[in-house]
Specification:
The chain has five domains: about 55 residues, Helix Hairpins; about 240 residues, D-amino Acid Aminotransferase, Chain A, domain 1 (2-Layer Sandwich); about 80 residues, Nucleic acid-binding proteins (OB fold (Dihydrolipoamide Acetyltransferase, E2P)), CATH 2.40.50.140; about 150 residues, 5' to 3' exonuclease, C-terminal subdomain (DNA polymerase, domain 1), CATH 1.10.150; about 80 residues, BRCT domain (Rossmann fold). The longest helix is centred in the first third of the chain and has 21 residues. It is about 35% helix and about 20% strand.
Length: about 675
């Protein structure tokens, strides 16, 4: 049977366990979508998971977790750029998929306003791009910030300055006799389909990896540190939000007209709708014209036009109640399934992949698509030689959603596809499927397919933070035979002379890499526990294990009962830890890491907690800190025994407020929560 992600807990499961599973799953998808520009599931599947979590939390408020995605907007911001706090949070929109849901949205608006107001909506296209906030001072572009997690984003000003569609200095205009000088503009940065296809064609001719879709390429471009490269990418922006300092503008429709006057690009398909019939007409018109547009859209946005009424209707933690996004169903196409191959991830998960006759779907040409797992493959009964239905989940990750059965019933492959017994890499390791799981695994950590991904993960910022050991470099070093396990990273110093002779390398870049490798040895136990890639052990679980075991030898000796006695360590996690430490290959790698000098001892949490003013306290961070990043402050507070929450409530003990603190500071003041400046925070340590 295929795992059902959407079922409510079985009788033998607790609501708490299901809530925890959903939080981990949604946070993982958020990270992939917002930080990696990947989307393994469709928007609808994501929304169903999110709705289930909200329902469970509403029924069991005491079980709500501090890291629940219902308490935040999006994902953790990227780290390559300076982080900036948004003056006003950049919220996400609730999604709808049917006329009935639009009618429900309209009914809720009418109920909120008691039928005493003249309601009209501003309807716009929903561009499939990357959200951006622009700050203008004296009409000059001063700052461009990504959405990030909705509260904190990345400063990408230099990259955004390269967009020729944006004014570096806005036009001079007046509203009600007052000049517009200081303001914030928001919108979506995107790329036309024709430009995207031209870039992919050139990369294919040059033998380089092509991009998945325009949104991926746009997101990747904005993450580049070299703005001269960004300048060569044909990025565009559509603007739909305006907040002017000292000037109140009531109409969303009027704001877009003002944006045009200021010199900003705005959507041309904009309409005021006064009832449901007009909204439906707008939705259908845009759906008909969708494929004729030069860019990708995935729906339309419906907003209450009046800013005054928007404030009356209000917000929920994650999104405004006065706006909604109507999402179109994923586009589909039919093509030939030529073969089924296997793809191995860093934890050994084996994913079947459909190798397709290339077909154009939703803005890009698809030649490979995920089949998720063996159960999914059997459920769809997909076989080589079939004509299959291909769609793009969330218009990002292509997948096979069904089979077009031949009229005569005779299929090219007469028998269902049988999953291989052995990994098809050169190690030919036995593939195993743990009881109760949907995935097959290759458990050989020396499997070359998972080796690269394991090394990339081990070197990543939140694990061992080895700057300079990125995807392309890892791939090259593996091909050269220098990296056969994560432990080989610490032997790269013996290859210094060879590294300096490689193309685009030199003494300085080599020394920087080797220094980053050496510095990683000093990181505490929880970082290496996360980095070694124990299945189901993410950052949070690694910290919990490090708090309960002072040395890795203690964790290695722990039995199942001991692991399960730890709060927040479930059965799958416990079994994964036991399995990891029973694998002789993994033990050999750990021994090599110890010999290399890596730190396998935990920080002394107990001493710090006893002497700390934050021990047992709930703390919320808001605004921009000048002496440390938000993650560094969070780690420091956790080390001092505090619980770091994402939202302010009556249970909050302290709010640490940096520069440009927003709604959380206001709520803390309203509730009488003690507010600490950055100086106060540092003085209490």
């Amino acid at each position: 049977m295929q795992e059902n992600l959407f079922e409510m807990p079985r009788a033998d499961e607790t609501a708490g366990r299901r809530i925890k599973e959903l939080v981990e799953l949604i946070n993982k998808y958020d990270n992939l979508y917002y930080n990696m520009a990947e989307s393994p599931i469709s928007d609808r599947e994501y929304d169903r998971l999110f709705d289930e979590l909200k329902a469970l939390e509403a029924a069991n408020p005491e079980l709500k977790l501090p890291d629940s995605p219902t308490q935040r907007v999006g994902a953790t911001p990227l780290k390559e750029f300076r982080q900036v706090a948004h003056v006003k949070p950049m919220l996400s929109l609730a999604n709808t998929y049917s006329e009935e849901e639009i009618a429900d949205f309209n009914r809720r608006i009418e109920n909120e306003l008691d039928g005493n107001e003249n309601i009209q909506y501003c309807c716009e296209l929903k561009y499939d791009g990357v959200s951006m906030s622009l700050h203008y001072r004296n009409r000059v572009l001063e700052l461009a910030v990504t959405r990030g997690n909705g509260t904190l984003g990345d400063d990408v000003t230099q990259n955004v300055r390269t967009l020729t569609c944006l004014p570096l200095r806005a036009n001079e205009i007046e509203i009600a006799g007052r000049k517009i000088e200081n303001f914030e503009v928001r919108g979506e940065i995107y790329m036309d389909n024709a430009d995207f296809l031209a870039i992919n064609q050139k990369r294919e001719e040059e033998g380089e990896k092509t991009f998945a879709n325009p949104r991926n390429l746009t997101a990747g471009s904005l993450k580049l540190l070299d703005s001269s490269i960004v300048a060569k990418r044909p990025l565009k922006m559509v603007c739909y939000y305006l907040d002017v300092e000292g000037v109140a503008i009531d109409s969303q429709f009027e704001k877009i007209q003002i944006l045009r006057s200021l010199g900003f690009p705005t959507g041309s398909r904009l309409r005021i709708c006064r009832n449901l019939a007009e909204i439906r007409e707008f939705i259908e018109e845009q759906k008909r014209d969708r494929n004729a547009l030069p860019f990708n859209i995935d729906g339309v946005v419906i907003k209450l036009d009046s800013a005054r009424l928007q404030e009356i209707v209000g917000y929920v933690a994650r999104s405004p109640k006065w706006a909604v996004a109507f999402k179109y169903e994923a586009e589909t196409a039919q093509t030939l399934l030529k073969s089924i191959t296997l793809q191995v991830g860093r934890t050994g998960v084996v994913t079947p992949v459909a190798e397709l006759e290339p077909v154009f779907v939703a803005g890009s040409t698809i030649s490979r698509a995920t089949l998720h797992n063996y159960d999914y493959l059997l459920e769809k009964d997909v076989r080589p030689g079939d004509i299959v239905i291909v769609e793009k989940g969330g218009d990002v990750i292509p997948k096979v959603s069904g089979v077009v059965m031949p009229e005569n019933g005779e299929r090219v492959s007469p028998e269902p596809f049988k999953f291989p017994e052995f990994c098809s890499c050169e190690k030919h390791s036995l593939l195993v499927r743990p009881e109760g799981e949907v995935n097959f695994y290759c458990n050989n950590p020396e499997c070359p397919w998972q080796l690269r991904r394991r090394i990339e993960h081990f070197a990543s910022r939140n694990a061992m933070n080895i700057d300079g050991l990125g995807e392309k470099i890892v791939e090259n070093f593996v091909k050269l035979g220098w990296l056969k396990s994560i432990a080989d990273i610490y032997s790269l110093k013996d290859k210094k002379s060879e590294i300096t002779k490689l193309e685009k390398w030199g003494v300085r870049s080599t020394d920087n890499l080797l220094k980053a490798i050496e510095d990683s040895k000093k990181l505490p136990l929880h970082r290496i526990l996360y980095g070694i890639g124990i299945r189901f052990i993410g950052e949070g679980a690694a910290k919990i294990l490090a708090k309960n075991f002072s040395r890795i030898e203690e964790l290695q000796k722990a039995d199942r009962d001991k692991l399960l006695s730890i709060n927040e360590i479930g059965e799958k996690m416990a079994d994964a830890v036991l399995e990891f430490f029973s694998n002789p290959i993994e033990i050999e790698i750990l021994e090599r890491l110890k010999v290399a000098g890596c730190n396998f001892e935990s920080e002394t949490f107990s001493q710090i907690v006893e002497d700390s003013a934050f021990s047992g306290k709930t703390v919320v961070l808001t605004g921009e800190l000048s002496t440390m990043t938000r993650n560094q402050a969070k780690e420091m507070l956790e080390k001092f025994g505090a619980k770091v929450a994402s939202s302010v409530s009556k249970k909050t003990d302290f709010v640490v407020a940096g520069e440009n603190a927003g709604s959380k500071l206001a709520k803390a003041t309203e509730l009488g929560v003690k507010i600490l400046s950055e100086e106060d925070f540092l003085a209490m340590q």
